[in-house]
Specification:
Layout: H1 5-19, E1 32-38, E2 45-51, E3 65-70, H2 83-93, E4 105-108, E5 111-115, H3 128-140, E6 151-159, E7 162-169, E8 172-180, H4 186-196, E9 215-218
Parallel strand pairs: 3-5, 8-9
Antiparallel strand pairs: 1-2, 1-6, 2-3, 4-5, 6-7, 7-8
């Protein structure tokens, strides 16, 4: 069966679920995952953002690195790489010094963007802590095919007390981004989020320097 963008969107959401705890758990080089970005449709890719755990200013894109990883597997283009496959590649890319040809280096949202060739990367497999985490996560948060609505497709930690969420809504893979303040009224925000992302008056007008969403909602002061 040929892959659809719905399949790709679902895989992006699953990758987000696995990688969330790495905003606290360091990668081999001491950097952390600062974001998981859904690549613009219809690309079968995901972009993983790495950087220091704590940014020194509200927006520090020059401190961050975005890794664009294809999700289609080398052996079978109709099969998508899983969350653990992506994590293994990210760990390998953040182990020691990496050198990339200029043809694979780009920029996005002020960050350096590396177009990764998985065939040139030897993934780093899971360790004891990963397996322990899998056991504990499964017992406390059993895996389910049903995801919340809106569904989290990605996130970007933008600096002190600011985060961008990427969500889709009601079986629509069109991505909406929402800027939020983590120190705000979280319980109320999360409860109201499904309706807030539909409020057109909250949309940021004009050009948006973010190719990962179709529209941006400002909820920082909500």
């Amino acid at each position: 069966m040929a892959l659809t963008y719905d399949d790709i969107a679902e895989q992006q959401a699953d990758i987000v679920r696995l990688l969330l705890h790495h905003i606290h758990a360091p990668l081999p080089d001491g950097r952390f995952i600062r974001g998981v970005l859904p690549s613009p449709a219809p690309a079968a890719e995901v972009r993983i953002v790495t950087g220091p755990q704590r940014a020194q200013r509200a927006s520090a894109p020059d401190d961050l690195m975005a890794w664009e990883i294809p999700l289609r597997t080398i052996d079978d283009p109709e099969e998508l790489a899983g969350p653990n496959d992506v994590l293994g590649i990210v760990r390998a890319l953040n182990t020691g010094t990496q050198i990339f040809s200029s043809s694979r280096v780009d920029t996005v949202m002020g960050m350096t963007l590396i177009h990764v060739d998985p065939a040139q990367v030897a993934p780093v497999g899971p360790g004891d802590c990963d397996n322990a985490f899998t056991i504990l996560r499964t017992l406390t948060y059993p895996w389910t095919e049903e995801q919340p609505d809106p569904r989290l497709r990605g996130f970007l930690l933008q600096g002190p007390d600011r985060m961008r969420l990427y969500v889709d809504h009601e079986e629509d893979t069109d991505v909406v981004a929402a800027d939020v303040r983590p120190s705000g009224a979280l319980t109320a925000l999360l409860a109201a989020l499904p309706s807030l992302i539909e409020e057109r008056e909250r949309m940021v007008r004009g050009d948006i320097d973010d190719p990962h969403c179709s529209r941006l909602i400002n909820l920082v002061d909500w």
